[in-house]
Design brief:
The protein has 336 residues and is α/β, with parallel strands linked by helices. It contains ten helices and 14 strands. An eight-stranded parallel beta barrel has the order 3-4-5-8-9-10-11-14, surrounded by five helices. The chain has a two-stranded antiparallel ribbon with strand order 1-2. The chain has a two-stranded antiparallel sheet with strand order 6-7. Helix 1 packs across helix 2.
Length: 336
């Protein structure tokens, strides 16, 4: 698995990373054994970058990833988690479906982008992970807390990095505007952009990716399949964590017809697409089973002929100015 460095941090990430939301019970429950087998399959595939967050299943994903990695040499992988939501005990019962996770609601989330909240969140994550350090820490979804995130949360992360507590810092969001501000107004090492730079939509190309390139910083891409739509576009498929609108579904179906006409699965083109831009260091894949991980690795290694991208452009499904990857399976060559 090829490796790239996050900005100027010296932190190496494999071009294919493991996204932990699914084993935290995103949409549907995942058993303990299945979660462990999924992480093991990722390791066997050569993945050495693992991403998680307290939000994922109310800490379930952190506990499971920490347990699965505990026996691995700590210097052999990179781990990222997120801050901004504290988990606190609650007297309530039920489940966490209101937040999209099939997990018992024994805790509740509380937004906290204060400096103290950031430090407490990091300490809590280390406890759940059962590990001695986290390599990359990301501010998680500060959409409605913008000024506090820049005024209090970011300086706290910068201090933790200067003290050597963490190696790299950044932010992770489902939008590109505020991530662009982090790239231009702060000294983050990387940002995680979910769902806004995919084969289906390229809003991040307007400002975010050029800002990262100018600053010499890195972008990690999440949500590359747009909540699953680009793996299997069909009625009822999810897009942006909800049922896909008819026009979006129709566009995805047309994309599948075009790629398959050239002998390439749509998910292979979707997984490879972000590597057309030189700032993209890693693409996260959220998997809930070992088979899904093995499939992602196989799709990443499929050679995509130029005709695939040309066909998408000809069919009006991919703008002419959008860069596409070379034949290198992990996008190691210059984009064109």
């Amino acid at each position: 698995m090829a490796v790239r460095t996050l900005g100027h941090s010296g932190v190496p990430v494999t071009t294919l990373g493991f996204g932990g939301a699914s084993i935290g019970g995103l949409y549907e429950p995942v058993g303990e054994d299945e979660a462990a087998a999924t992480v093991d399959a990722a390791w066997a595939a050569g993945i050495r970058y693992f991403d998680t967050a307290p939000h994922y299943g109310l800490g379930l994903a952190e506990r499971r990833i920490g347990a699965a990695l505990h026996s691995r040499p700590r210097d052999s992988y990179v781990l990222s988690t997120k801050v901004g939501r504290l988990l606190e005990p609650t007297d309530g019962h039920g489940d966490d479906h209101g937040h999209g996770f099939a997990a018992p609601a024994t805790l509740r989330r509380r937004w906290d982008f204060s400096a103290d909240g950031i430090r407490r969140s990091l300490d809590d994550s280390l406890t759940r992970l059962g590990l001695d350090r986290i390599d990359l820490v990301l501010l998680h979804d500060p959409d409605d807390h913008e000024e506090q995130a820049f005024r209090e949360a970011y300086p706290a992360l910068e201090e933790l990095r200067s003290q050597g507590v963490v190696r790299a810092i950044g932010a992770g969001m489902n939008q590109s505007r505020m991530l662009t501000r982090f790239l231009t107004d702060t000294d983050v090492d990387a940002v995680l952009c979910a769902g806004r730079y995919t084969l289906l939509e390229q809003g991040a190309l307007d400002a975010l990716l050029p800002a990262a390139q100018q600053a010499g910083k890195s972008v990690i891409i999440g949500g590359v399949f747009n909540s699953g739509l680009l793996t299997d576009p069909r009625p009822g498929a999810r897009y942006d964590y909800a049922a896909a609108p008819e026009e979006v579904l129709h566009r995805a179906v047309r994309m599948r017809e075009t790629t398959e006409a050239h002998g390439v699965p749509l998910r292979a083109a979707a997984l490879r697409f972000p590597f057309g831009h030189p700032t993209v260091a890693s693409v996260l894949v959220g998997a809930r089973s070992a088979d899904e991980i093995r499939d992602a690795e196989a799709q990443l290694r499929i050679r995509l002929p130029d005709d695939v991208w040309a066909g998408l452009r000809t069919d009006g499904l991919l703008p002419e100015h959008v860069p596409v990857p070379t034949d290198a399976p992990t996008g190691e060559k210059s984009p064109r």
